[in-house]
Design a protein that fits this description.
single chain; about 260 residues; alpha/beta; Rossmann fold; 8-stranded mixed beta sheet; binds zinc ion
Length: about 260
């Protein structure tokens, strides 16, 4: 349960105030493990960014093919890829790439770092977004253990930002693929962190974030017996409102920001 005295709880109204996430950038790359990772909270911020004319690209380590118990991976992967592309389109994202790592057993290591570094060099973002790389989700959700794929992809993303800027790490990216180093990433913003520092106003993007999560229909069908629209709205509106006490009373998406 939530401990109201815990200073790391993003929903604790007496916790430190969250700062507005920097907005002086043009290109972002969002790197997560699974289809729906960005829709569970982040999409309202993405809608806000694309409304402002910024470019956002999604990069998924897996196709989420192990996510539905009743659907075999060979069928599930393409289904979830379609749902992810539809969810991205709702918030103004037209480029969605998949690295094809195996769902559920993504390994932190040089292969994953290299794949992410290659994408950073291709897309040249100033802001990189990822999902909680820490062991747990923090006190707001009872300290629940985070998934191994999220931990691996989040940590590899934080590390790959440095790799992307160094020509001598993964030299094959330049020699074999013509990918010049890109050292222009200024921040990594981690969504779902138990220790957030910044936030983005979710007011304008909240309805579209609901619609974005709703695109994952095949997945939601097995996740909940409830009306999918009611489920998505309650979850996302509740999460955004929970951040409000630490962000001037405004519903928001919280991030832990790592400047470079
Ligand atoms: Zn996930």
């Amino acid at each position: 349960m939530t401990d109201p005295t815990d200073p790391t709880d993003p929903t604790d109204p007496t916790g430190p105030r969250l700062e507005p996430l920097p907005a002086d950038w043009q290109r972002a790359l969002a790197v997560v493990a699974h289809p729906d990772d960005l829709e569970y909270g982040c999409a309202a911020a993405v809608a806000d960014w694309t409304d402002a004319g910024k470019e956002v690209v999604y990069l998924l380590a897996t196709r989420g093919e192990a996510g539905i118990d009743t659907v075999a991976p060979a069928e599930c992967g393409p289904l979830r890829e379609r749902e992810q592309r539809a969810g991205a389109a709702v918030v103004g994202v037209s480029t969605v790439e998949f690295l094809g790592h195996r769902d559920g057993v993504v390994e932190y290591g040089t292969e994953l770092r290299r794949d992410i570094a290659a994408a950073i060099r291709r897309h040249r973002p100033e802001l990189v977004v990822t999902l909680n790389h820490r062991d747990t989700w923090g006190p707001a959700v009872g300290g629940a253990w985070n998934s191994p794929d999220h931990r691996a992809v989040g940590r590899a993303t934080l590390d790959a930002v440095g790799d992307a800027g160094n020509r001598w790490i993964f030299p094959e990216l330049l020699a074999g693929h013509g990918l010049e180093p890109w050292d222009g990433v200024r921040w990594v913003a981690v969504a779902g962190s138990p220790t957030p520092t910044h936030a983005v106003d979710a007011t304008a993007g909240l309805e579209r974030s609901v619609l974005s999560l709703l695109q994952h229909r095949g997945y939601l069908q097995v996740l909940t017996d409830r009306n999918p629209e009611v489920y998505c709205r309650e979850f996302l509106v509740g999460a955004a409102r929970a951040v409000a006490p630490r962000f001037g009373g405004v519903p928001a998406v919280a991030f832990e920001l790592f400047p470079r």
